[in-house]
C-alpha cells in the first residue's frame, strides 16, 4: 500500500507515455499452444501468494484442461501500472491481462485505443451461451453491463462490479476510544472538537507510559486523509481505486456546474485548517510519504499503543493477534461539521465500479484460447467459482452455513462463512481480489459474520456498522464522473490535462500543509491558481461540463 501522493508523479509519467507505448505494439506477438494460456496479473508475494503455485490455479487448470502461466507484478499501484505499460510496449505481451481495480486497471480511453489498434479483442461475441453466469450477471445488474461497455459501444474488457458497502464510503476516521476514555473525552463532532481531542492525545499521555510518544493523527498517503478533513469545508472526493490522475477527484458540482474545487475559497480554508494541525504537531510527519507497511509498524509497535487516530478506509493498521487488545480500541468517527455547520461527506458513488476494465484478451490469444478465457471468467462469476476464487478451498478457507449463523445483512439467508486464517494461508489457496468480478450486494452481505464486531470473525460487521455512520451524509456537490463518457481526440486531450492537474493538486496539497507553500500568503495562493490555469484548468472543466450536459 504505497502512498498515493508519493506515487502520483510516477503514475502520471506512466500514463503520459502510454500512447507511445501502445504505438510500439505494432508487431504480431508470438503465440503459445492452445492449451497454454499466459496471463499478466498482480500477486501479493509478500503475503505468500504465488499464482503459478496456487490451489485455485490448479482447480482452473484441471477444470478447463489448460496450463496457466502467469507474468506477475505486485499489489503496489505504481509498480503494477508501470510493469503493465512495459509489458504492452514490449510487443511480447500475454494472452490476457487480469488486474485488480484498486491496484491498477485499464481506463476507458486505454481500452478504446488498444481496441482500435487491434491489441485487445472485442468480447461482445464471446458473451452468450458459453458464458451463462456472466450473461445472467449483466441481466441482474444492468449497470454492470453498462460499466463494461466502452464509450465506443464495444465491450473491450470486463470490469469489477463490487457492491462493497464499506468501500462506498472510503474516507473514514478511526479513533482510539480507549484513549478518549482515559482522558474523559467524547468523539469529536466538529473540526474544532477534533483539534481539541488531538491536542489532548499529544499532550496528556493517553497511553499512560509517561512518555511523549503519542501520534495524534496518522495516515498512509493523502487520499483518505485529505478527503475526510476537507469535506467539512467543501466536497472533496477521495482518489479511490487507482493512482492519482485517472479519475477527476478535484472536481465537484456547484449549482449544477462542474467546478475545480481547489479554485474556491472554501478549499483554501480547509487546507488552512489542516495546515494548522500539522504545524502544531498533531499530524504524523510521515502522513504524505509513508506506505502501508510503515503505518502498520506504528500501529503494531512493540513499544505499546502510540497512534490515536488514523484516516483510512478500515483499521488494517492493527491486528487481532496483538495481546494488548488494541485491535478492539479503534472506532469510526462520523463526518465532522465544519465552520458552516455542515457535515456533508463524500459518498463513494462509483467506488465499487470504476470505469474501465481489469480483464482483457489480447490479439496473441487464439480463438480457442479466447473462448477458454471467457469460460474461466464465467466460472469466477458463478457462485461457487466466486467462493473458491476469492476465498479458497471449501472446508479450509470457507464453509457452508449451519443453524444459528447470521448473515452480515440480517435480512438475508446466510450462504457462506469465511474461516479466519492468516492472510498467507488464504492467498496460497485463492486468487483473492483478482477473482472478484461480480460481488453484488446479495453475495457480499449473505456472508456469515460473527455478531461480536471486535473479533476477527466479526470484522466485516464492524465495517458494515461503521459505514452506517457515514451513509446519509452525501454531498450535493458530488461529481458523478463514472456516469460520463469522453471519447476520441477529446479523450486523448483530457487524459493529459487530467493527469497533470490531479497530480499537481495532490502534490500542492501536501506542500501547503507541510509548509513548502504558504497557504496564508496571497502571493502563494495566486501562484497556485495560475499553476492550475497553466495546466489547463479551464479546458478541464469545459470538457467535463460538456460531457455532463450530453449525459443530461
Automatic annotation (TrEMBL):
Under InterPro entries, the record lists: Bact_solute-bd_prot1
- Keywords tagged on the record: Signal
Question: Where does the secretion signal sit in this chain?
Answer: 1-23
Could you identify this protein by its name? Answer: Putative aldouronate transport system substrate-binding protein
Its source organism is Glycomyces sambucus
Amino acid at each position: 500500500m504505497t502512498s498515493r501522493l508519493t506515487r502520483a508523479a510516477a503514475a502520471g509519467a506512466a500514463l503520459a507515455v502510454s500512447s507511445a507505448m501502445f504505438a510500439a505494439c505494432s508487431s504480431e506477438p508470438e503465440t503459445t499452444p492452445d492449451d497454454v494460456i499466459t496471463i499478466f496479473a498482480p500477486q501479493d508475494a509478500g503475503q505468500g501468494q504465488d499464482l503459478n503455485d496456487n490451489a485455485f490455479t490448479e482447480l482452473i487448470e484441471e477444470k478447463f484442461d489448460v496450463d496457466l502461466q502467469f507474468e506477475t507484478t505486485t499489489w503496489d499501484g505504481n509498480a503494477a501500472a508501470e510493469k503493465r505499460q512495459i509489458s504492452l510496449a514490449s510487443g511480447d505481451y500475454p494472452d490476457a491481462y487480469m488486474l485488480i481495480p484498486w491496484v491498477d486497471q485499464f481506463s476507458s480511453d486505454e481500452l478504446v485505443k488498444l481496441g482500435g489498434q487491434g491489441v485487445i479483442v472485442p468480447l461482445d461475441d464471446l458473451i452468450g451461451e458459453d458464458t451463462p453466469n456472466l450473461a445472467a450477471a449483466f441481466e441482474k445488474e444492468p449497470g454492470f453491463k453498462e460499466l463494461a461497455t466502452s464509450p465506443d459501444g464495444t465491450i473491450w474488457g470486463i470490469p469489477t462490479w463490487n457492491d462493497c458497502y464499506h468501500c462506498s464510503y472510503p474516507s473514514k476516521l478511526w479513533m482510539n476510544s480507549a484513549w478518549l476514555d482515559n482522558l474523559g473525552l467524547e468523539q469529536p463532532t466538529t473540526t474544532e472538537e477534533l483539534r481539541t481531542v488531538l491536542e489532548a492525545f499529544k499532550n496528556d499521555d493517553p497511553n499512560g507510559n509517561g512518555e511523549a510518544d503519542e501520534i495524534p493523527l496518522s495516515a498512509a498517503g493523502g487520499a483518505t486523509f485529505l478527503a475526510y478533513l476537507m469535506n467539512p469545508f467543501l466536497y472533496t472526493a477521495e482518489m479511490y481505486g487507482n493512482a492519482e490522475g485517472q479519475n477527476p477527484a478535484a472536481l465537484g458540482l456547484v449549482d449544477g456546474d462542474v467546478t475545480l474545487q481547489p479554485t474556491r475559497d472554501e478549499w483554501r480554508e480547509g487546507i488552512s485548517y489542516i495546515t494548522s494541525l500539522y504545524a502544531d504537531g498533531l499530524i504524523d510527519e510521515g502522513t504524505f510519504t509513508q506506505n502501508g507497511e510503515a503505518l502498520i509498524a506504528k500501529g503494531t509497535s512493540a513499544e505499546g499503543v502510540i497512534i490515536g487516530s488514523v484516516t483510512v478506509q478500515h483499521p488494517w493498521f492493527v491486528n487481532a493477534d496483538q495481546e494488548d487488545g488494541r485491535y478492539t480500541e479503534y472506532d469510526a468517527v462520523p463526518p465532522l461539521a465544519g465552520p458552516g455547520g455542515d457535515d456533508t461527506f463524500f459518498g463513494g458513488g462509483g467506488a465499487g465500479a470504476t470505469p474501465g476494465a481489469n480483464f482483457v484478451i489480447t490479439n496473441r490469444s487464439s480463438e480457442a484460447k479466447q473462448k477458454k478465457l471467457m469460460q474461466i471468467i464465467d466460472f469466477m462469476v458463478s457462485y461457487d467459482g466466486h467462493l473458491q476464487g476469492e476465498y479458497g478451498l471449501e472446508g479450509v478457507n470457507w464453509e457452508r452455513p449451519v443453524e444459528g449463523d447470521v448473515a452480515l445483512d440480517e435480512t438475508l439467508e446466510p450462504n457462506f462463512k469465511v474461516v479466519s486464517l492468516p492472510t498467507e494461508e488464504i492467498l496460497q489457496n485463492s486468487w483473492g481480489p483478482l477473482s472478484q468480478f461480480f460481488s453484488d450486494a446479495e453475495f457480499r452481505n449473505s456472508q456469515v459474520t460473527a455478531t461480536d464486531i471486535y473479533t476477527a470473525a466479526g470484522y466485516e460487521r464492524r465495517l458494515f456498522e461503521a459505514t452506517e455512520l457515514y451513509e446519509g451524509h452525501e454531498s450535493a456537490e458530488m461529481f458523478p464522473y463514472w456516469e460520463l463518457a469522453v471519447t476520441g481526440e477529446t479523450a486523448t486531450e483530457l487524459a493529459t490535462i487530467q493527469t497533470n492537474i490531479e497530480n499537481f493538486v495532490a502534490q500542492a496539497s501536501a506542500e501547503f500543509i507541510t509548509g513548502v507553500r504558504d497557504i496564508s500568503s496571497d502571493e502563494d495562493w495566486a501562484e497556485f491558481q495560475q499553476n492550475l490555469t497553466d495546466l489547463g484548468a479551464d479546458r478541464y472543466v469545459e470538457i467535463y461540463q460538456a460531457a455532463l450536459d450530453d449525459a443530461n
